[in-house]
Each structure stands twice: as C-alpha cells, then as structure tokens.
Amino acid sequence: MAKRKSNWRWVDWLYVFTIVSQLIYIGYYLEQILKKSAENTMLSMTVLQVVVGLVIATLPIVVERFIPYRFPEILYAVYLIFVYCSILLGTGLHFYSRLYYWDKFLHVLSAGLLAGLGYTVFNGLISKQLRQSISALLMSLFAATFGSTIGILWEFYEFTGDRLLGLNMQRYMLGGQLLRGQAALVDTMGDLLADVLGSCLIALIGYFCIKHNRNWLNKLTFTKK
C-alpha cells in the first residue's frame, strides 16, 4: 500500500517559524552564557523561559497525537503568535520593559484567543443541526464571557502568587516600594479592561460573521484527521 503524503497546513509553517526563531535565540545567548557564566544568571533564566516556550508551542501537536481531531487552524495560529510575542519578544528580547503597553497588547490578544476558544467550546456542546439555528447573539455572549472569565481567573492566579510567594506580577510595587491607593490597582484594572476589550472585540466580529454566513463557525471547530 502506498504511503499517504502528509499535507502541511499554512499554520504548520508558522509553527516552524516560531520554533526556529526560538532556537536561534537560545543558540546565540547560550554562547554568551558560556563565555561569561558568572555574569549571566538573569540571562540564563531568560534562556530557560524561551526553552519552556518551545515546549508550550509544541504542546498542541503533542495533544493532537492522542486525539482523533485537529485544533482549529486559526486558533492554533493565534496561539503561536501569542507564544512568540509573549515569550520570545516579551521575555527574551525584553519587550515588556521596552514597550510600555506590550503587556496590555498581549492581554487583548490572549483574550481574543480565549473568546475564539469559547466559540469552539460552544460548538462542541451543541449538535450540528442546532448550530445552524441557534442565536448568533447567544454564541457571541458566551464567547465574550468565556474569554473575560479566564482573564479574571488569571488575575486570581497572579494575586495568589504575589500573596504567597512575594512576587510582583500585579505590579503593586515599584523599585521595591509598595504603591498606594489607585496606583496599586492600575496594572490589574488595566489587565482586566484589556481582557474584556479583547473578548468583546472577537465576540463582535464573530457575531457579524455568523449573521453573514453560518459556515464561518467551521473555522472554529475541531476537525477529524
């Protein structure tokens, strides 16, 4: 029997670009660490986070090995973009500190990704027949709520880490000094606002796409291999 050729999707090329970019970064900075190992403790931690980024980017492929479905291409693509922007650019190349609103941009992006996932979850909970008649507004409200809720849970995670481990994920300290009043709330409230905006934006786009053509939902549905 002839072997069936594997068909590469466009998102697979995006995966290759993400992985190769991170490998180039790791290779370059590993050389710097080996040359000046005593002076590069922070750099070593940064490189380690980029290595973890390789695993995170590959995780959906590993999961697909054990299930008879493939993730929606558009969601996987946004997922890879988020990994690239948050880990390689944000952490590896210090965009978080160099660009003031980089963190907020990533919150909008991740919330949009989660809202898209909300459509996928909703599609998985209803039949194909019902998918053709159910209210577009109801689906979009679910997507917006899903994305916003995960964003809220993430802030709970950051608060827990700050409270128990003395971290500063919610930016309530500046230069080792505690901020006071609204100054201590700016980062958290900004993150929540970005989460809601990202979720609502994708939900709004989804609403009009569904009203125009119900088959648009197929782009956010798991497909059989």
Helical content band: over 70%
Distance between the termini: 19 Å
- The dominant shape is flat
Mean pLDDT: 91
Strand content: under 5%
Name the helix and strand elements from N-terminus to C-terminus, one letter apiece: HHEHHHHHEEHE
**Oligomeric state of the chains in view:** single chain
The number of distinct helices, counting runs of at least 4 residues, comes to: 8
What's the β-strand tally?
Answer: 4
Q: Main sheet: which strands, in order across?
A: 1-4
| Structural class estimated from helices and strands | mainly alpha
Q: Ranges with pLDDT <50 over ≥5 residues?
A: none
The profile of the biggest β sheet is:
2 strands, antiparallel
The Rg value, from CA coordinates, equals 20 Å
Description:
This protein is mainly alpha-helical and 225 residues long. Helix content is 72%, strand content 4%. The protein is built from 8 helices and 4 strands, in the order ααβαααααββαβ. It has helices at residues 10-35, 41-66, 73-92, 95-98, 102-125, 128-131, 136-165, 186-212, and strands spanning 69-70, 173-174, 177-178, 223-224. A two-stranded antiparallel sheet has the order 1-4. A hairpin with a 2-residue loop joins strand 2 and strand 3. The protein is flat and about 60 Å long. The mean pLDDT is 91.
List the helices and strands and how they pair.
Blueprint: H1 10-35, H2 41-66, E1 69-70, H3 73-92, H4 95-98, H5 102-125, H6 128-131, H7 136-165, E2 173-174, E3 177-178, H8 186-212, E4 223-224
Antiparallel strand pairs: 1-4, 2-3
Helix pairs in contact: 1-2, 1-3, 2-3, 3-5, 5-7, 5-8, 7-8
